[in-house]
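pls read this stuff:
=====
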Amino acid sequence: MFSRDRWSEIIEALSSNWFRTVMTAFGVLWGIFILVILLAAGKGLENGVKQGFGGVATNTMFMWTQTVSKPYKGLPKGRRYNFKTDDVIAIKDQVPGLRFVSPRNQLGGFGGANNVVRGLKTGAFNVYGDYPEVIQQEPMDITSGRFINYSDIKDKRKVAIIGEGVRTALYEKGEEILGSYIKINGVNFMVIGSYKKKGNNGNPEEAQKQIFVPFTSFSQAFNRGDTVGWMAITAQDGTPITNLKGRIIDLMQERHTIHPEDDSAVGNFDLFQEFNKINGLFIALRAVAYFVGILVLLSGIIGISNIMLIVVKERTNEIGIRRALGASPWSIRGQILMESIFLTIISGMAGIILATLVIALINMQLSGMDTSEMMFANPSVNIGVVIVALTILIISGLLAGLIPAQNAIKVKPVDALRTE
């Protein structure tokens, strides 16, 4: 079947009219090209969006207090309440499957009054009282020094880790920051490290203008007592935080005498749920890419099938002679199918190569740019996509040649020999 004579015949048949063959092959080339480019573009968008999370622990929920909207057990609606440090302990003890429960307090912020002073320089920055686990929930690169540890928590040390944006605003270029002091709302804190946030979620510039201090020293310095502003709660791998959220909220309602049906009293944001929505969006985008690419490819396959019908018609006399000399129907059918598959695969591979070159050029352009704040990064397709594309090509080639091949074996030798 794969003899040299047979392949010479296939090449001769396809090259007898080069222009027609090239124009027919272009339909398949363009279909595969569109399919691969659409999938690569979708992957680039997915990479960019996920890069925006910056490695944030996506199996996380955030929880804060809001106004109670329903009276309950003699307490009026409209009252305010606060989380306490005991609530953190209760959640850890009574809700299994949690990895981190991080209480947090906060003051200041962008757009507020200047709350941080160093020498003659001042600035308005978010200041967070945190536990060491927060760096695993909200990853950041420590550019100098270190982050908060449990010795800082235990000893209530007045130490601070500042963002690179804070460093730029309060220090001269090249000035040593470790061991220096900044004054937060009138209280001195020694700088022990600096960080740079990962990702581009939210406001990337303001993400570098934050200050982290130990939760205990924050509470002591700013008279917060045992109050907790809000919490970041991360579930263990394999256990969606969404499945535990109801139990956590029920526990807080019980501890703070809140009506079980008061859904607005405990504010929360389920990052895992939102992240799953984004994943669902990209699955839909991939489905659309396959749908559009296969439709374009189908139009090219129809073109090849039509051309093969014309080729069979032009070679009716040849087919009659071969049948008269004893060629079997399978031999005739195999010849037509091989020509169709060969043309389809060659044009399809050309489309894959062209798409690969385009993707490589785009990645070369992106490699020289800072993509940390872009919603598009590293467009690519994996080997699985190439295998799927090759499978589509082979099946398409068979389908494109099937009808012409069947028409070819239906030709009676006597009728074929009479054809002019």
About this structure: Residues 4-54+276-418 form one domain. The chain has a mean pLDDT of 82. The CA atoms of residues 313 and 408 lie 8 Å apart.
